[in-house]
Design goal:
single chain, mainly alpha, 2 helices
């Protein structure tokens, strides 16, 4: 049995998982925030989009 572990892929198809050392030196990718007016514009243009929702823990 080998002591080294193979590189794992990140969940949801994000590519290889980042190690803590890599994430500290790599600048964070800015978050693209989608607001309701963006969804309205997509609907007006006839573009399709999917929605994800989640429940907040109490």
């Amino acid at each position: 049995m080998s002591s080294s572990t193979p590189e794992e892929t990140a969940p949801y198809g994000g590519g290889p998982a980042e190690s803590p050392a890599t994430s500290a030196t790599t600048p964070a990718k800015p978050i693209k925030r989608i607001r309701t007016h963006h969804l309205r514009e997509l609907k007006e243009r006839g573009e399709r989009f999917s929605m994800l929702t989640s429940l907040r823990p109490d």
